[in-house]
């Protein structure tokens, strides 16, 4: 028995809902955005340290190639790559380019696949 | 404060900063891919010239605006209690402002010397 | 045929539960609704809405194997078993597969779903050119089944403030109508962080619309119309 005052029963178990590819690309866009937002204050402090002296600059570069540094950079480059690709997708869809369902599904899949590949390429090539 | 960037204004700001930041990301990528290997002298020269410093600050302003609109959307979606919502939005605004001030100060000290 | 169905009776249950059914469809059973009606003859406590049984009334919307759809349009041979049936996600459950649509219809009424035109009506109907009429295609066909809004994450988080894909498609149906003179007021009403701009173009709405309509396209057009209006 339920009393009238209790919160209404709802079905909203996200694990029992089959999400289309567009929804996966969208939540990844949100997650990558949060990661980049967290990275922003860190980026400012990296900027500050990198300008201090050549020694500090090299220390930062060494930290970037350490195990934990590589992990953080891998996450950050994936986040940036996905956020940029999914962002381009949304900017185009806003003006009606690729906003049909079939094209939107294809571009969502493309962004999800391309982002880790780009991130891996940047990491392996080592831009810093 | 919730209305700081309401409705269409926030949507337009998000899109405008997105386009600007896209250009910045592509320019940065080109600079890293096509230029000489990155070292302190080249890095320092890029960031501390008046043009470089102003562009860097502008990019951080765009990042802060873009991040604010996105973060606010997330809070409006997932955080319903009013008090917690205002506290979170305030904290995000504070961190973004502090980040911006820090970048300006760092570039100002290096530009002055 | 195996089915797993969400059961909840507010008078006797504290929590919803899943109930397994096994039933053999008969020769004439083509759609999921046919099986549900057969099940109801075995277990008359099972509750669901249905009326026209041909995708016009929009009453038998439910979550079928994780996606929203109309039981009357869902072919049996396309279904993976066990067929898992749940009420529309995010909507308050009244009983079993029946949900409370009050908020959904409140949003629909809020966009003034009728022509507004203060000019005195002509002798016969207000005429449209074939082009003007063409713009209403893909908009007027909505049957308000709520499959889209109940599949929209933005609507799940803010069901009281976001109008949702169904309401916004209907809003655009009147914005796009050449006979309606309230376009500016309609757009002003929609220019709000919640009412329109909760949409993040996830496109779950367009994915599940049983009529093949595209609420996401209507929302895109509303945003562009707002942009034009303010520039």
UniProtKB/TrEMBL annotation, chain A:
- UniProt GO molecular function: electron transfer activity; metal ion binding
Span-the-membrane segments of this chain are 21-43, 63-86, 107-124
Compartment(s) of residence: Membrane
| UniProt KW Iron keyword | yes
Q: What are the alphabetically sorted keywords of the record?
A: Heme, Iron, Membrane, Metal-binding, Transmembrane, Transmembrane helix
Q: Which InterPro entries match?
A: SQR/QFR_C/D (IPR034804), Succ_DH_cyt_bsu_CS (IPR018495), Succ_DH_cytb556 (IPR014314), SuccDH_FuR_B_TM-su (IPR000701)
- GO-annotated biological processes: tricarboxylic acid cycle
Is Transferase one of the keywords UniProt gives this record? Answer: no
PROSITE patterns linked to this entry: SDH_CYT_2
Cofactor binding mode, per the note? The heme is bound between the two transmembrane subunits.
Reported cofactor(s) = heme
Report residues binding heme: 83
Give the way it sits in the membrane.
Multi-pass membrane protein
Q: Name one GO cellular component term.
A: plasma membrane
Q: What does this protein do?
A: Membrane-anchoring subunit of succinate dehydrogenase (SDH).
Instruction: Provide the family line.
Output: Belongs to the cytochrome b560 family.
Which proteins does it associate with, and in what oligomeric form? Part of an enzyme complex containing four subunits: a flavoprotein, an iron-sulfur protein, plus two membrane-anchoring proteins, SdhC and SdhD. The complex can form homotrimers.
Name the chain's protein.
Answer: Succinate dehydrogenase cytochrome b556 subunit
Organism, as annotated: Denitromonas halophila
- Origin organism lineage: Bacteria, Pseudomonadati, Pseudomonadota, Betaproteobacteria, Rhodocyclales
From TrEMBL, chain C:
**Entry's Gene Ontology BP terms:** respiratory electron transport chain; tricarboxylic acid cycle
Q: Which pathway does the database say it acts in? A: Carbohydrate metabolism; tricarboxylic acid cycle; fumarate from succinate (bacterial route): step 1/1
GO molecular function annotation = 2 iron, 2 sulfur cluster binding; 3 iron, 4 sulfur cluster binding; 4 iron, 4 sulfur cluster binding; electron transfer activity; metal ion binding; succinate dehydrogenase (quinone) activity
The record's PROSITE patterns line, in alphabetical order, gives: 4FE4S_FER_1 (PS00198), 4FE4S_FER_2 (PS51379)
Cofactor dependency: [4Fe-4S] cluster; [2Fe-2S] cluster; [3Fe-4S] cluster
Q: Name the InterPro entries for this protein.
A: 2Fe-2S_ferredoxin-like_sf (IPR036010), 4Fe4S_Fe-S-bd (IPR017896), 4Fe4S_Fe_S_CS (IPR017900), Beta-grasp_dom_sf (IPR012675), Helical_ferredxn (IPR009051), SDH/FRD_Iron-Sulfur (IPR050573), Succ_DH/fum_Rdtase_Fe-S (IPR004489), Succ_DH/fum_Rdtase_N (IPR025192)
Q: Which reaction does it catalyse?
A: a quinone + succinate = fumarate + a quinol
The record ties this protein, via SUPFAM superfamilies, to:
2Fe-2S ferredoxin-like, alpha-helical ferredoxin
The residues covered by the 4Fe-4S ferredoxin-type domain are: 132-162
What's in the keyword line of the UniProt record? 2Fe-2S, 3Fe-4S, 4Fe-4S, Electron transport, Iron, Iron-sulfur, Metal-binding, Oxidoreductase, Transport, Tricarboxylic acid cycle
User: Do you know which Gene3D superfamilies this protein is assigned to?
Assistant: 3.10.20.30, Alpha-helical ferredoxin (1.10.1060.10)
EC number(s) stated in the UniProt entry for this protein: 1.3.5.1
Family under the similarity heading: Belongs to the succinate dehydrogenase/fumarate reductase iron-sulfur protein family.
| Protein name per its UniProtKB record | Succinate dehydrogenase iron-sulfur subunit
Native organism is: Denitromonas halophila
């Amino acid at each position: 028995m339920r009393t009238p005052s209790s919160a209404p029963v709802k079905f909203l178990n996200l694990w029992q809902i089959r999400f289309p590819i567009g929804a996966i690309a969208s939540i990844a866009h949100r997650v990558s955005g949060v990661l980049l937002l967290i990275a922003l204050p860190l980026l400012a402090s990296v900027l500050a340290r990198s300008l201090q002296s050549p020694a500090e600059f090299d220390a930062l570069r060494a930290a970037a190639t350490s195990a934990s540094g590589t992990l953080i950079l891998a996450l950050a480059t994936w986040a940036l790559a996905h956020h940029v690709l999914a962002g381009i997708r949304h900017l185009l869809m806003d003006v009606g380019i690729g906003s049909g369902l079939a094209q939107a599904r294809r571009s969502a899949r493309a962004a999800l696949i391309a982002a880790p590949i780009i991130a891996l390429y940047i990491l392996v090539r080592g831009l810093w | 404060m919730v209305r700081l960037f309401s409705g269409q204004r926030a949507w337009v700001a998000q899109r405008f900063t997105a386009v600007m930041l896209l250009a910045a990301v592509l320019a940065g990528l080109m600079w890293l891919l096509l230029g000489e290997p990155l070292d302190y002298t080249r890095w320092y020269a890029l960031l501390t010239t008046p043009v470089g410093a102003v562009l860097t600050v502008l990019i951080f302003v765009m990042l802060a605006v873009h991040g604010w609109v996105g973060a606010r959307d997330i809070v409006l979606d997932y955080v319903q209690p009013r008090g917690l919502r205002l506290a979170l939005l305030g904290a995000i605004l504070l961190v973004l402002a502090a980040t911006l001030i820090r970048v300006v100060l760092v570039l100002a000290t290096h530009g002055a010397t | 045929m195996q089915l797993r169905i969400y059961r909840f009776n507010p008078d006797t249950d504290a929590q919803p539960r899943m109930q397994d059914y096994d039933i053999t469809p008969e020769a004439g059973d083509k759609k999921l609704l046919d099986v549900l009606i057969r099940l109801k003859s075995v277990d008359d406590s099972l509750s669901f809405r249905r009326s026209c049984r041909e995708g016009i009334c929009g009453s038998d919307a439910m979550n079928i194997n994780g996606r929203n759809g109309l039981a009357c349009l869902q072919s049996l041979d396309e279904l993976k078993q066990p067929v898992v049936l749940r009420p529309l996600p995010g909507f308050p459950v009244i009983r079993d597969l029946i949900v409370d649509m009050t908020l959904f219809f409140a949003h629909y009424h809020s966009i003034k779903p009728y022509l507004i035109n203060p000019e005195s009506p002509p002798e016969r109907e207000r005429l449209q050119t074939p082009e003007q009429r063409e713009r209403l295609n893909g908009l007027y066909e909505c049957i308000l089944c709520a499959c889209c809004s109940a599949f929209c994450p933005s609507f799940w988080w803010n069901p009281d403030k976001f109008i949702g894909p169904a309401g916004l498609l209907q809003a655009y149906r009147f914005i796009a109508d050449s006979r309606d003179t309230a376009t500016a007021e309609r757009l002003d009403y929609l220019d709000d962080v919640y009412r329109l701009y909760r949409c993040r173009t996830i496109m779950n709405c367009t994915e599940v619309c049983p009529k093949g309509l595209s609420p996401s396209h209507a929302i895109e057009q509303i945003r562009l119309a707002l942009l034009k209006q303010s520039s």
